[in-house]
Amino acid sequence: MSSLPVGAVHESPAAHSGPSDASRQINARIDRLPATRSVWMLILLLALGGWFEFYDLFFTAYVGPGLVKSGLYSTTTASFFGVSGLGAFVAASFAGLFIGTFFLTGLADRYGRRTIFTVSLLWYSIATLIMAFQTTAPMINLWRLIAGIGVGVELVTIDTYVSELAPKHLRGRAFAFMHLIQYLAVPAVALLSWWLVPQQVFGMDGWRTVVIIGALGALIVWAIRRRVPESPRWLAQQGRTAEAEAILSALEARVQRESGRPLPPPVLSVEPAATKAKFREIWQKPYRRRAITLLVFNLFQAIGFYGFASWVPTLLVSKGITITHSLMYSFVIAISNPFGPLIGMAIADRIERKTLVVLSALGIAIFGSLFAVQTSPAMLMILGVAITLCGTLLSVGYHAYQTELFPTRIRARAVGFVYSMSRLSAMFSGFMIAFALRHFDVTGVFALITFAMVMVMASIGLFGPRTNQRTLDEISH
């Protein structure tokens, strides 16, 4: 086969000049890239930024017993919306996430993935640091909410970023790899909490030290930012073709050197229907059905996922296990978090994305029901690990899935919109879990989680489209 210049594109007779055509060419050139070191390095750098996001997100569970021990919070409250209960702390986290994902993720479509990736990481790092020094539950809740806004924007921006930088044949594995790195934060925060939360550190409650460590992520933001380029797909959509061309040509040259052979010829996919981003497109075919499906999905997946992940130590304490042992068992369970994405890397591009989501939800429902009736520490840890593996596989599947269902011009805004439902749901789930725990014990908690997983399976299994091995432009039609 004769080789073409690095940026050459096979044109179809229908191809024509203009911004949309330039965008199609950029997309086609990205999708033909082999999985070399340079491609994986871009995904790694974005995942490292997300590591601190996951640390911030998941310390909600592991500092919970310390907040209760310090006298600032109680495990449950007599009133449903008690502000001094642990449910209020969880709710504040997700209220911020809701504001960020619902109102602000469109900024990434307007100002670019790279800029918002940096700003949101700095935002929540600073807010989290301030939260660590608060001395009352209402002020902790307030700064937790402010930090959550940044985390919400960051999560959607990173998902959007990765979906656009990864070639179509690599998207599933790219998201699995990203989650592998991000979920390494969970055993890290669990280990630090097990070690630090029960004691005083430099005269401070241990939970404060755990929080401060996570806030230090801002120190590496600029180092990551210098190594990650703007999304060429986004630049092309904005008509900034020269910038997109420069970034992509440099990447193609590195990839070709690393692969040791000419790049395969790119093939133009279907032409995007429009180039200007409009929110109302979400409610037009084919996106309307997808948006409604994902709104329902996110409403329920958050109850199941965070109903366990944000309450592991507290659920164990409710089964009669001491705080110290609860944090130790939680650490053992947390170690399993990266193994879900490892499994995902092996199967994510081989099994249809919607099927992975459905099977993962089924596993959470089954293992959660068994967890609720166990009293043996060994079985609690084994089932906790099983629930965690299913939860992380669910996360790998749906984070990739929902970014694939909308076009580049509205991707961040649309994903932020549908994903915000999970934040709203998770906010109220904190109170719902606390209520179920108070009145129906751990069994009631997992009855709620099981119902949520049934709704997840029904929404995606019945109404979700297939996406594997298809270009983003093809899926957009």
From TrEMBL:
<dbReference type="InterPro" id="IPR036259">
    <property type="entry name" value="MFS_trans_sf"/>
</dbReference>
<feature type="transmembrane region" description="Helical">
    <location>
        <begin position="207"/>
        <end position="224"/>
    </location>
</feature>
<feature type="transmembrane region" description="Helical">
    <location>
        <begin position="174"/>
        <end position="195"/>
    </location>
</feature>
<feature type="transmembrane region" description="Helical">
    <location>
        <begin position="39"/>
        <end position="58"/>
    </location>
</feature>
<keyword id="KW-0813">Transport</keyword>
<dbReference type="InterPro" id="IPR020846">
    <property type="entry name" value="MFS_dom"/>
</dbReference>
<protein>
    <submittedName>
        <fullName>MFS transporter</fullName>
    </submittedName>
</protein>
<dbReference type="InterPro" id="IPR005828">
    <property type="entry name" value="MFS_sugar_transport-like"/>
</dbReference>
<feature type="transmembrane region" description="Helical">
    <location>
        <begin position="379"/>
        <end position="401"/>
    </location>
</feature>
<feature type="transmembrane region" description="Helical">
    <location>
        <begin position="78"/>
        <end position="104"/>
    </location>
</feature>
<feature type="domain" description="Major facilitator superfamily (MFS) profile">
    <location>
        <begin position="42"/>
        <end position="468"/>
    </location>
</feature>
<dbReference type="Pfam" id="PF00083">
    <property type="entry name" value="Sugar_tr"/>
</dbReference>
<feature type="transmembrane region" description="Helical">
    <location>
        <begin position="142"/>
        <end position="162"/>
    </location>
</feature>
<feature type="region of interest" description="Disordered">
    <location>
        <begin position="1"/>
        <end position="23"/>
    </location>
</feature>
<dbReference type="GO" id="GO:0016020">
    <property type="term" value="C:membrane"/>
</dbReference>
<feature type="transmembrane region" description="Helical">
    <location>
        <begin position="329"/>
        <end position="348"/>
    </location>
</feature>
<keyword id="KW-1133">Transmembrane helix</keyword>
<comment type="similarity">
    <text>Belongs to the major facilitator superfamily. Sugar transporter (TC 2.A.1.1) family.</text>
</comment>
<feature type="transmembrane region" description="Helical">
    <location>
        <begin position="291"/>
        <end position="309"/>
    </location>
</feature>
<feature type="transmembrane region" description="Helical">
    <location>
        <begin position="443"/>
        <end position="463"/>
    </location>
</feature>
<feature type="transmembrane region" description="Helical">
    <location>
        <begin position="116"/>
        <end position="136"/>
    </location>
</feature>
<feature type="transmembrane region" description="Helical">
    <location>
        <begin position="413"/>
        <end position="437"/>
    </location>
</feature>
<keyword id="KW-0472">Membrane</keyword>
<dbReference type="InterPro" id="IPR005829">
    <property type="entry name" value="Sugar_transporter_CS"/>
</dbReference>
<keyword id="KW-0812">Transmembrane</keyword>
<dbReference type="GO" id="GO:0022857">
    <property type="term" value="F:transmembrane transporter activity"/>
</dbReference>
<feature type="transmembrane region" description="Helical">
    <location>
        <begin position="355"/>
        <end position="373"/>
    </location>
</feature>
